[in-house]
User: Fold this.
Amino acid sequence: MEISTVLGLVGGFTVVLLTLLIEGGHVASFINFGALILILGGSVAVAVVSFSLKEVTAIPQYFMKAIFPPKENLKEMVELFVNLSERARREGLLSLEDDLSSFKDKMMRTGMELVVDGTDPEIVRDILEDYADAEKEHDKIPPELMETLGGFSPTLGIIGTVMGLVHVLEGLGGGGGIEQLGRGIAVAFIATFYGIGFANLLWLPMANKLKFLSHRSVTHRNIIIKGVMSIQSGDHPRVIREKLLCQISDPHLRQEIEEAAPKEGA
Assistant:
């Protein structure tokens, strides 16, 4: 589980709720199902116009991906390529054929199959890079969808507020008094509250998390490309480790992998 996603979402809404209670507000006064339908339903409708219906219906899956992202252990990936290179140098590339079925990552399995089959290195690189580019383009859709929801949500909130104010102004001649007028205006602004709240506490943060996961996947795929090509070219395991470490932007993870590597002569 990506615990930071859960903590952030729960923490954001909790802070708003606590602030409301500290200021002496009442939770019941902020509940308006009409405004909620307008914001959520309107946002989904806008997303359907902007994207395909298939992508919009996959919104729950995007949330699950942000909470339970694909397991991409870069440390294990680096060590796997180093071990494969050691065996390939000792026993030849064909010795890796028995391991192909154990690779869970489709891109890595495809690359290693091409290497074992003796495919030209340029063809292998082109196939892997095209595969990585296609995955990268696909990964752009979820955050773009969330950003669209976050962009239109406040505007829909303003529409709801305007609708509410029009209703309030229509009733001014009914003799309801200043108290009823104030209550009506307050209710009208609930839509704006929902629109801004959902945009800044849900949609936009979720878009940023999906972008972060996409960046991590790019690193994962770059390691696969470098690792497969290095094994095919017969690079020394130590050289392969250094090549793969250069793909990792996190200095703490790089140091962790370096410290876990066996020392020369050990």
In short: The chain has one domain: 3-73+128-260. The CA atoms of residues 179 and 235 lie 80 Å apart. Residues 3-73+128-260 form one domain.
